[in-house]
Amino acid sequence: MTSATTTATVPAVDEAVSGLAPLKVADRCDQCGAQAYIRVRMPSGSELLFCGHHGRSHAPALAAQGADVRDDTHLING
Q1: The pLDDT value given to residue 17
Q2: Most buried of 2, 6, 34, 37, CB within 10 angstroms?
Q3: Averaged in consecutive runs of 10 residues, what is the pLDDT profile of the chain (78 residues)?
Q4: Neighbours of 49 (CB within 10 A)
Q5: Cβ atoms within 10 Å of 70's Cβ, excluding its own
Q6: 57-69 b/e with 16+ CB inside 10 Å = b?
Q7: Are 42 and 49 within 8 A, CB to CB?
Q8: Is the whole model's pTM more than 0.90, yes or no?
């Protein structure tokens, strides 16, 4: 018997809409130091970078507070 698991994803935001620059290989997660795939710009203008794991954890709540989110997790293992 197999068990299906679902993971909540952060909706990708078009760069033209969010104005957030693409992430580079050198960009690192602010929480753990892994390669960043999610960029979040807070309403104050400050930016946070997250790996896929921490981005899925934090970006939805930050977006609900008005932050812009660029999600490039589709590039993982791409």
Answers
A1: 42
A2: 37
A3: 44 54 96 97 96 94 95 88
A4: 20
A5: 25
A6: ebbeebbeeebbb
A7: no
A8: no
Residue from 29, 75, 22 nearest 55 by CA: 29
DSSP characters for 3-52? -------PPP--HHHH-PPPP-TT-B-TTT-SBP-EEEE-TTS-EEEE-H
Quote the DSSP letter at residue 65.
T
Strand partners, 76: none
What six digits make up the tokens of 18?
């969010």
**Contact of 37 with 53, CB cutoff 8 Å:** no
Tokens of 52: 């896929």
